[in-house]
Amino acid sequence: MKNWGKHFGLVEIRKRNSQEAWDNARDHTLISGEVAIRTEQFSALPPWEKATARAAAVGLTVDTAVVAGKSAARLWGIEVLGWDQVVELMHIDGKQAQARSSWQPGVHYRYCHLSRAEIREEHGLRVTDLARTLRDIARYHGVMDGLVAVDSVRKKWPEWTKHALHEELTRGRPYPGIRTVRQVIEWSIPNSGSALESRARFLLLVAQLPQVESIQAQVRFSYEGGYFEVDLLINGWLIIEVDGEIKYDGHTFGKKTDEVVRDERGREKYLQNLGKVVLRVGHRDLLPPPDGGPCRLIRLVVNAFENYAAPVRTSRSA
């Protein structure tokens, strides 16, 4: 686990040397009751890194609680959906948290049993171990959030196969949410390209469209002496590219926006000449609409099946 306190330059003001720094540096912002960060640095962080900094700040100052759930996942470097600033906490061996009215702002205690064997302590932070973290995300946040986290773990640590996940997450006595955990493991893959891609795949699986026979992730195509990968390939001909807005910010990936768009257009033409249909979707296309119907991604896929004929494979005779 990364040393998050050092990474973000967190200042623990309850410590004497940090208190002196705090007294002499009013350009800091408190991100928990007793931890501060340089205001300029914090303002420049993307939302998901702000959530990670918050989780680290709370984790450094709680006396007995353990950082858990999606907050623990962030500290492990696991991708999760959203960037909620609320930090999830648990107590050890069934100890109960204080009354909700006494919780510090921006924390949420989970009432459940957590054994000492399920805890890891690194760089002054107590967090749930990987297995318990994944289990709790699925249990408390549902299949979609659980799938995003498990996909991320399987890509980051290939040894977490489906078999290993079942051994670590579902062994022993049944617990609330175990059926959800099993579903997450069954749908997980080792090569998801991003949290948004995992979310899109989840939505397609849940939609159970009768036309969908197969969904492949990160499919490789040869191109100009090299190759590129598409996010999702349905039935061998319908391609879904899931783009986060950060892709077009002009600096994160070291390319200007117009260069990114130009490269995308070149690859799309190549794929279309191969008989593929390409749909590009973003974060908003994966959100449920106000009317409660299917999200735009699903509507686009249905429309593609209605308006495009699948390529016909012809067999060669001798």
TrEMBL record:
Protein name: DUF559 domain-containing protein
